[in-house]
Amino acid sequence: MTPAPSIPRPNHSRASSLERIPTYAPAAASAIDRTVPEPVAAEVLEEQTYFETNIEPSYLPEVRAKLRKFIRFHTERPDPRRIVLVTSGGTTVPLENNTVRFIDNFSAGTRGATSAEEFVDNGYAVVFLHRQFSLLPYSRHYSHTTNCFLDFLAVDSSSGQVVIDSAYQQEMKVVYQQYRKAMDENLILFVPFTTVNQYLFTLKLVSHELEVGAGALALFYLAAAVSDFFVPRSKISEHKIQSGSGGNSLVLDLDPVPKFLKRLVENWAPRAMIVSFKLETDETLLVGKARGALERYSHQLVIGNLLQTRKHTVLFVTKNDAKEYSITEQQEKEGVVIESVIVPKVIDAHSEWITGIQQHQQQ
Ligand code: PMT
Hints:
Rossmann fold, two-stranded antiparallel ribbon, 9 helices, 34% helix, binds ligand PMT
């Protein structure tokens, strides 16, 4: 079928409407004080307490079964494939068991979804642990954008059928082919979460399964923005908090979410390479905070980013080094993504890590 001609749209699409106003980015003056020291790393006792006193998501056995199959599919081949766990999006903190209200954060899942595509391009299989309804690899090009997906469509004048507008044919064909390949070759396992509790239980499960099934071939790329505080089971209200019950104010008593990164590095997946992210809004704090995380959790790499510049600049912080990587404004306009710089560098580090583990095992 001949593609429909591109239709000129003088200011009538969502691309030019009020949807473009960035209401998701409020004035920076309201930032919290990030100079406050980070909470300490969780040890064995915190792990036991958390996982014994909070309820495991009922669907976890299903995740375990699918995950095992996925890991076996990629590791039990003549040329075993590396597997990356990409965490993506923000976690919610429900204020009620029958949840009407919850606390959330800004993360849309752009970093995670874009990085997952880059990992697939570079031969990895991806376990994509993501906030449900946040951005997904490939479909991210057409969802959550200020352009409505309907703006990509047109009516073909000869057949009368709805088709892709010719202006987007080429770009969409490329994205579709990449998506098809990833699906047909079983290269991405989508594992969703919404709450911080679901995230933590699933992270622990995936870590154990990757440790057992993939060892050093596993890479952890923790781009999710995990809530720092939550309402534990012992304190959560079963039903909707009534607006009149607390007088004129609602006072929330939140517990800190245990920092399980140390447990992950030392116990859950000790042979895997772990990359964490650090988000700040004040650039004078970024290196110090990233280095602090590296010392606290003893993992291999922290990728620092600033809220304001995260789409074009990142900082790789290792034990001995801090290196900035960025893309230019021109590259950004041409559609280059910073993840196309980040991911190959992370893969190089993973290759070195695998060699190191193999040498260690031979000794
Ligand atoms: O999704 P986008 O809009 O593209 O935004 C991407 C991002 C800015 C959220 C991402 O690049 C990023 O920086 N994520 C980490 C945010 C952060 O500072 O997290 P943290 O300091 O709370 O945690 C440090 C690291 O430990 C993170 O890698 C986090 O995923 C991980 N973590 C934290 C706590 C916890 N309980 N479990 C974890 O795995």
